[in-house]
Amino acid sequence: MAPELPPLLPPVGVFDQAEFPDALESEIPDIPPSPVIISHAPPAVARSVRRGCWLVNFRPTGTPLVSYDGTIRVEVSAGGRTASGDLYQRQIVILPGGTSTLGPGPNPAHGIPIQPLNRYRYYLSITRILEHSTPGNSFELGFQRWRYILPTPANRNGSWVNEGPFSATMTWITAPAAYPSAGDYLEGNLRNNLGVIVGRLKMGWVSWYYRKASIEIDTVQGSERPTGNGAGEAWRTVGIKMGWDLTEILSQTNVTNPSGAGWSNGELHASMLQWRNSSNLDIEWRYHLLAVHLLDFTERGVMYDTGGTDSNKVAREGAGLSSHWMIPPSGWGRVNGKRWGGEAAPYFRSAVHELGHAFGLLHNLNNQYFMDTSNLIAGAGEVTPPKFPDNIRWNFADIDLRRLRHWSDIFVRPGGVPFGAASETSPIISPPDVEVEVPGVRLEVEPLRPELPLGAPVRINIRLTNVSSDTPLRVPKDLSLKSRFVCGYVTGVSGTPRTFSPVVITDDNSMRDLAKGHSVTASLTLLRGAEGALFPTSGVSEITVKINWPIGEAEAAVVGKTTVMVTGAYTSEHAVAAHKVLATPDVHAVLIFGGDHLEEGIEAIRTALNDDTLRPHFAAIEAKRCARRFMSREPDIETARRLLDDYVVRTDVEAAQLRKAFEDAGAGEDRMPRSIRPNGS
Fold first, then answer.
1. H or E element that contains 422
2. CA atoms within 13 A on the CB side of 55
3. Which CATH number fits domain 211-424: 3.40.50.1440, 3.40.390.10, 1.10.3720.10, 3.30.540.10?
4. Minimal CA–CA distance to 451: which of 573, 564, 291?
């Protein structure tokens, strides 16, 4: 179970420009609002809870070395106020002589605090707050307090425990020194559901914004910096609409092109680690955007850093953007046939879209807002004016604004939960009744090998077929784990489901018309998911694959299942190799990214290759990595050939990828091993 967002009071939208009309021309002023004078006599001042970020402290009773600091975010709309909060445990300092004391709390003069991720403890879903104004000097604050259990290797998302309702009578008093507004400060005793006082709660206003972050932009030579749409929209204005204080950091412009014209996901990640400025995510939320000429596996943009299973163990930190992708000659409105980076509006929109994924947002399609995809927005402009890119809506959709403002910190901050975990664990955001079954569509799931040894990746083939409808059905064109449409879970002998979801999110979720009797096929290689290894023990495991896609305001859903039998260790060498693979998260990252920079993962794969039992199952993965150019390393075709000379377990998709890698390296069919030739010819 996970925390629900606070109740929503419509409408959700941008900051009220009437309250500070110069917000788009200058920074939002930190000026306290004037008191409201009630018209009847005698005159009285009506107080209200100010919009923005409030610095919060909670000190439990009877525990002098325990204190929690955080924020409460208060959003104001015509219907009242929506609020949420997060608390982090303050560090304990050991003084000379061994005496322990509480460390200092955040300084209110510094505005919105950024605190260490590993100190995160609570999410506050605020259920009661002063909605408008009061002539009194206090109000009742109520919330559900959700305790966060930090992630473990077996559960990378962490877990939540609802500790029940709490309430406090919050009273206005003069703010201590360093707070920017002396009149926006409150304190009160916190009570549990039995009415027992459990501590003291303090909150003082520090910023008009709800959150703050920075975006570092690096480019290769010749790629444009995505800094705005050329018509007034820029990162700062996007931040104002989000309610985030976004700082743009324009960094390197001469990032070295590592190999060929296209960049792999592994090269993007390695370059982020090499070129970005030094940053500490415990004191700054910094996201990284790298603009390159072309991307290998997608056209316009990619958020490649989804899971924190890579060498620096940080989820949702980086995204890549293609500046030299050539727009098709038709179907793209005013920018037909032009270069992507040369068109400021769609280029900048694509950058915001990919950073939206880094903020934890999924695709939100067919509405022309930021989390829609460029191809769908362009297609909509071909049907209903105006043409693309004039039909772009320069904001996030209301539901996404709500997430950005009121999700838990760990759902949005870089290094928090893996991509997709926030959406999957917020049932109030994605209620199950939006899903509808599509009659006449069948999803078949078949394992490539029904039985396989412990430690081996599990390869499955999936087929989506229109089995009954005489009218072509609109379905996803791509069913790989690079699309947003596919997810699932594995249930092993323990009975606990282990989830898997897309590992690389691109700005391309094309649909196609599927005629009766026709199918869309794909192959998935399953190894790890959000909870760790998907097949950590021997025994029968059931694999459930789910495909979702939008149909109007609802979501189509179709499910398919299969089983595999994982056998135990055959030899002591096999046991050692399987242990190494299952205990090394970077093995999964090598499978996704390839490259040479994930040394722990490569070492574990080589251990598997040295074991006779696991070698056939990892040979294609390592051959693909070797056969592709990475940074300054040329393709190692000879090593790839040796790996593929023996018996190899691989899907037809993997064979096609290997053939392309050989062709790109200049190796003709005569140099290709028989194991990857079409039909084994």
1. helix 421-424
2. 23
3. 3.40.390.10
4. 564
Domain boundaries, the chain: 36-207, 211-424, 431-568, 569-681
Q: Exposed e or buried b for every residue in 22-57, given b needs 16+ CB within 10 A? A: ebbeeebeeeeeeeeeeeeeeeeeebbbbbbbbbbb
Residue 434 has pLDDT above 60, yes or no: no
What angle (nearest 5°) sits at the alpha carbon of residue 559, between those of residues 553 and 564? 155
Task: Check whether the bond before 386 is cis (ω within 30° of 0).
Answer: yes
Q: Please, what is the end-to-end C-alpha distance for the chain in angstroms?
A: 53
Return the closest-CA partner of residue 344 out of 427, 229, 437, 458: 229
Give 13's Cβ-side CA count (13 Å radius): 8
Backbone φ/ψ region at 115: left (φ over 0), alpha (ψ -120 to 50), beta: beta
Contact 591, 604 (CB under 8 A): no
3-state secondary structure string across 609-664: HCCCCCHHHHHHHHHHHHHCCECCECCCHHHHHHHHCCCCCCCHHHHHHHHHHHHH
DSSP 166: E
pLDDT value at residue 305: 63
Reported as a single tens digit per residue, the pLDDT across 505-550 is 666 667 888 999 999 999 999 998 877 899 999 999 999 999 988 7
Give whole-number Cα distances, 350 to 229, 296, 356, 403, in Å: 10, 17, 10, 20
At 360-406, the pLDDT tens digits run: 898 888 899 999 999 999 999 999 999 999 999 999 999 899 999 99
Residues 476 and 483 sit within 8 Å (Cβ to Cβ): yes
Rounded distance between C-alpha atoms, residue 354 and residue 104, angstroms: 36
Q: What is the 3-state secondary structure (H, E, C) of 261-320?
A: CEECHHHHHHHHHHHCCCCCCCCCCEEEEEEECEECCCCCEEECCCCCCCCCCCCCCEEE
pLDDT for residue 303 = 75
Alpha-carbon distances of 87 from 1, 113, 190, 201, 280, rounded to whole Å: 19, 11, 14, 11, 20
Instruction: Using CA atoms of 233, 237, 238, 244 in order, give the dihedral in degrees to the nearest 10.
Output: 170
Backbone angles phi, psi at 648, to 5 degrees: -130, 135
Quote the mean pLDDT of the chain. 85
Q: Is the predicted pLDDT of residue 45 greater than 80, yes or no?
A: no
**CA-based radius of gyration for the chain:** 27
Q: Is the pLDDT of residue 182 over 70?
A: yes
CATH 2.30.29.30 assigned to 431-568? no
Query: What top-level class would CATH report for the domain 36-207?
Result: mainly beta
Where does 472-584 have alpha helices with state H? 572-582
Cα–Cα distance measured from residue 445 to residue 641, given in angstroms and rounded to the nearest whole number: 31
Strand partners, 513: 474
Q: Give residue-wise pLDDT tens across range 71-115.
A: 999 999 888 899 999 999 999 888 888 788 899 999 999 999 999
Q: What is the DSSP letter of 327?
A: P
Give residues with Cβ within 8 angstroms of 358, minimum separation 6: 287, 303, 305, 316, 317, 318, 319, 414
Q: Describe the crossing of helices 637-644 and 615-627 by its angle, rounded to 10 degrees.
A: 160
The answer to whether domain 211-424 and domain 431-568 are alike in fold is no
**Maximum distance among all Cα pairs of the chain, rounded to whole angstroms:** 97
Amino acid letter, residue 342: G
Q: What percent of the chain has pLDDT over 90?
A: 53
